[in-house]
Amino acid sequence: MSWRIPFLGSQQQQTDPNFQDIPTQSWYPPPVVGSSSRPSTPTSSGASQHQSASDHPRPSSHGQPSPAEAAGIIGRLKDKSIEELQRLLKDKEAYNVFFNSLDQVKTQNNVRDELRKETLQLANRLTDLERQKDDIMRSYSPAALLDKLQTSMAKLDEESEELHGKFLEKDTDLPTFVQKYKKLRTAYHKQALLHLAGQTSLR
């Protein structure tokens, strides 16, 4: 934000050197050839356009305070002495302190800080999402899937060996052993075939 603060007394009235050369009736339109020499008066439509323009003031130019904001700044400056005003003009630090104390500046600084905070939060969130995406991609990569399949095969093989040991120690009857053992070995061999096919496709 780069406003120029309108200090009291800094805008002295200066007479335009060309002001005296402007005729008092210069706003009349030029006479039309063949018409009477009497100057024509402005039409009601021109007056209405002038009134409409005055009712809708143009917005302040970029980087300049609006009339309402300028009035607020001038109101702050009215209570200051000549010495204080001169110090604001000469002392950059004092000027910055006064400038940052304006309500308009405080509002814009707050908005800027909020936007910066939200931007940082979004950046952190984006980083987390990218990390999660990378983790998912790694966990479902062909090599990772083969490792998970290998782990599952080892677990099935261990369970089937434990069941076989229980049968030898007569801790389970034959029908139960056959049913469970067949189920475990069938799952094991299916996964073994998948693992072999996966290894072959990666070569």
TrEMBL record:
Q: Where in the cell is it found?
A: Endosome
Which biological processes are named by the entry's GO terms? Answer: protein transport
Q: What is this protein called?
A: VPS37 C-terminal domain-containing protein
Key word Coiled coil present in the record?
A: yes
| Described function | Component of the ESCRT-I complex (endosomal sorting complex required for transport I), a regulator of vesicular trafficking process. Required for the sorting of endocytic ubiquitinated cargos into multivesicular bodies (MVBs).
User: Which residue spans adopt a coiled-coil conformation according to this UniProt entry?
Assistant: 112-166
For bias type Low complexity, the affected ranges are: 33-48
The terms describing its cellular component in GO are: ESCRT I complex
**For the VPS37 C-terminal domain, which residue ranges apply?**
123-203
Taken from the record, one Pfam family name reads: Mod_r
State the family it belongs to.
Answer: Belongs to the VPS37 family.
- What are the start and end residues of every segment in region (Disordered)? 1-69
Q: Does the keyword Coiled coil apply?
A: yes
Predominant location category: other
Quaternary organization? Component of the endosomal sorting required for transport complex I (ESCRT-I), composed of ELC, VPS28 and VPS37. Interacts with ELC.
Q: Which InterPro entries match?
A: ESCRT_assembly_dom, Helix_hairpin_bin_sf, Mod_r
Instruction: Give the matching PANTHER family.
Output: VACUOLAR PROTEIN SORTING-ASSOCIATED PROTEIN 37, VACUOLAR PROTEIN SORTING-ASSOCIATED PROTEIN 37A
Renumbered to this chain, the Polar residues biased-composition regions fall at 9-27
Which PROSITE patterns does the entry link to?
Answer: VPS37_C (PS51314)
Which keywords does UniProt give here?
Coiled coil, Endosome, Protein transport, Transport
